[in-house]
Automatic annotation (TrEMBL):
<dbReference type="InterPro" id="IPR052421">
    <property type="entry name" value="PCW_Enzyme_Inhibitor"/>
</dbReference>
<keyword id="KW-0732">Signal</keyword>
<dbReference type="GO" id="GO:0046910">
    <property type="term" value="F:pectinesterase inhibitor activity"/>
</dbReference>
<keyword id="KW-1015">Disulfide bond</keyword>
<feature type="signal peptide">
    <location>
        <begin position="1"/>
        <end position="25"/>
    </location>
</feature>
<comment type="similarity">
    <text>Belongs to the PMEI family.</text>
</comment>
<dbReference type="InterPro" id="IPR034086">
    <property type="entry name" value="PMEI_plant"/>
</dbReference>
<protein>
    <recommendedName>
        <fullName>Pectinesterase inhibitor domain-containing protein</fullName>
    </recommendedName>
</protein>
<feature type="domain" description="Pectinesterase inhibitor">
    <location>
        <begin position="25"/>
        <end position="169"/>
    </location>
</feature>
<dbReference type="InterPro" id="IPR006501">
    <property type="entry name" value="Pectinesterase_inhib_dom"/>
</dbReference>
<dbReference type="InterPro" id="IPR035513">
    <property type="entry name" value="Invertase/methylesterase_inhib"/>
</dbReference>
<dbReference type="Pfam" id="PF04043">
    <property type="entry name" value="PMEI"/>
</dbReference>
Length: 173
């Protein structure tokens, strides 16, 4: 009888710790996240094209999407730098050169955001990623001011859309 009871206690405490364990690693609701994203169809296809997002908890998802934002910012930076080199039109060169600075500051804001991400500080992450998004936006405004048509050469849409997902996640942290 005593052994039976002990067994019962053991089994229920085992079940309890399994339940607590699964609470700690709760699978993030990707549908809910993408439902709040600025570009919902971008968000859904992004999640589908990244198998690691499936079954991930919120901190993992924050890490994955933040990593994509960093990659996208460096790609944008490299792209703009090669456009500066290739530009022969002085106005165009000037516009792209100012963009290089805006991308540098975006990358630096993302580097600051890493600390907030690591400590699970959602509001801090939100502020710093929002700041990072201003770089490419300012770049595009500059180019519009210089009246250069860059629609076929340059687009920061993916970067903005990925950052948009990070912002949604940061609001859930
Ligand atoms: C939203 O995402 C879709 C699919 O990735 C893309 O085709 C479209 O251009 C995006 N819209 C904006 C405003 O970024
Ligand atoms: C994010 O993932 C990378 C590896 O993919 C890892 O080195 C890093 O510690 C992770 N950061 C957080 C905050 O989980």
């Amino acid at each position: 009888m005593a052994a039976y009871l002990m067994n019962r206690v053991f089994v229920s405490s085992l079940m309890l710790s399994v339940m607590i364990g699964s609470l700690n690693a709760q699978v993030a609701d990707i549908k809910a996240i993408c439902g709040k994203a600025k570009n919902q169809s971008f968000c859904s296809s992004y999640m589908k094209s990244n198998p690691k997002t499936s079954g991930a908890d919120l901190p993992t998802l924050a890490n994955i999407t933040f990593g994509s934002a960093q990659t996208s910012a460096s790609e944008g930076f490299n792209r703009i730098q090669s456009l500066v080199k290739a530009a022969t039109n002085p106005t165009l060169k000037k516009a792209y050169t100012s963009c290089v600075q805006h991308y540098k500051s975006a990358i630096s804001s993302l580097n600051d955001a890493k600390q907030s991400l690591a400590s699970g500080d959602g509001p801090g992450l939100n502020i710093k990623v929002s700041a990072a998004m201003e770089g490419p936006t300012t770049c595009e405004e500059d180019m519009a001011n210089f009246k250069v048509d860059t629609s076929t050469m340059y687009n920061s849409g993916d970067f903005q859309n990925i950052c948009g997902i990070v912002l949604v996640i940061s609001n859930m942290m």
